[in-house]
What we know:
Number of helices: 1
Structural class: mainly alpha
Distance between the termini: 122 Å
Strand content: under 5%
Shape: rod-shaped
Number of strands: 0
Amino acid sequence: MLTYFISRSSAxxxxxxxxxxxxxxxKKFLLEQExxxxxxxQELDRLKIKFLTNLSHDFRTPISLIMGPVDQxxxxxxxxxxxxx
Length: 85
């Protein structure tokens, strides 16, 4: 009877120890997943900013190349209208 109690007691101790170990591993795993998710979100934000910056530049460059000559044409038209009156 004493042997049964000791083996049962050691089994309970082993189970508790194993359960704590598994719980600790799960916590580490979840923490690592959260870190990786945060890192992935930061990288995604960086890529969004880079994309929008490039897109903005790609729109501004042709518009400024078009606006320069258009402004000159408008100024020329205004001068011609002023000379004719």
